[in-house]
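TOKENISED FOLD:
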Amino acid sequence: MKAVVLGGYGLIGSAVMRALAAAGFDVTGVGRSAAAARRMGPGFNWILRDISSVETPEWRNVLRDADVVVNAAGALQDGGRDDLTAIHETAIGRIAAALEGTATRVVQISAAGVGPHASTEFFRSKERGDAILQSSGLDHVILRPVLVIGPAAYGGTALLRAAAAIPLIGLQILPGAQVQTVALDDLARAVVLAAQGAITPGTVADLTEAESRSFPELVQTVRRWQGRPDPKMRLRLPGVLLKASSAMADLLGHLGWRAPLRSTAIRALSDGIAGDPGAWQAAGGFRCRSLDETLAALPSTVQERWFARMFLLFPLLILLLALFWVPSGAIGLIRFDAAVAVLTERGVAMGPAQGAVALGALVDLVLGLAVLSRRWLRPGLIGMIAVSLGYLICGTVLTPDIWTDPLGPFVKVLPGIGLALAVLGLTDDR
């Protein structure tokens, strides 16, 4: 049987593709990033398309031989790279039209808590997409997982790991929120059963453990799983600070960053993430593992601890780079004559000196602002490294005495290069 998985290199999509392949399916993934597809590993077929922009005739061609279509594509919030309506509704409508009259089964991975009156557009748009599929007449199963826990971490699960990794302090975030979880392997197994026809057609079911716990209790459980000691003190994060952080994260979303503190994620957590396993088990499903069982099956390795710590440090490192390069360029322009004098006093002609200072200041400003955008982060970092090396080489030729300056301006460029290299090594988000 042939299965096509939309969003095949995401947290859920990649696990689903591997589980379907292990069950004997011929699996093809659909996604827009060739680099992310390559990182999924060899042995899979890929169709590189932006799911939100594919029209019905092209879907008809892409899905013409599919026995099963699994929709694992989704986005948390509108932003620089995401359009909720296009991904959650328009794409589903076009796929349903393309499959009209076929026996293809569609397995839709939705989310627990969806509804027309839900508190966020994420849940409302997901519900509208589910409704389109339910009214299409296609053979379908809709699975609605709660918070998914797996070896990899994106968004909310990355935030959970990072919150657990904060040294000494246990932040009490949203103490009233109740959360249930589901193992990523259980979700992938459920998709395989649905794809094989073992789940009743038309089933709409939550995938969840039976137990629930508060969000601080969840963080503490993950902290112990990571092998970290209990915090020395517990601090409740003020609501106003959490709202301010969400507003900043929403702003960063327009620059292409999928920050886990965006308002949709915080609102979803504050509402609680809960489901009812009854419908799933009634449709022929299995008992989903508890959080303790899920974590017991996942090794907490050094990679896990590195990720949690670096997830906290990554935005700080980018901010430090921006705060180094932008003021550097601004000071060069504000104190233009003094900067030019550094060169002219060492024998450089006035014209070339002015040109070098002006160009250098503008380049510093551009690079400092570039790293604040997700799209321009890698080019900006590479530019910083190249320009820093250029500064050192040209400075050594034109002003070698600055190497012995008591304040060490040339020497201080070296850790800046190291910082840019470190951030460059952390830029992958899939």
User: Anything to note?
Assistant: The longest strand covers residues 139-145. Residues 315-424 form one domain. The chain has 17 helices and 13 strands.
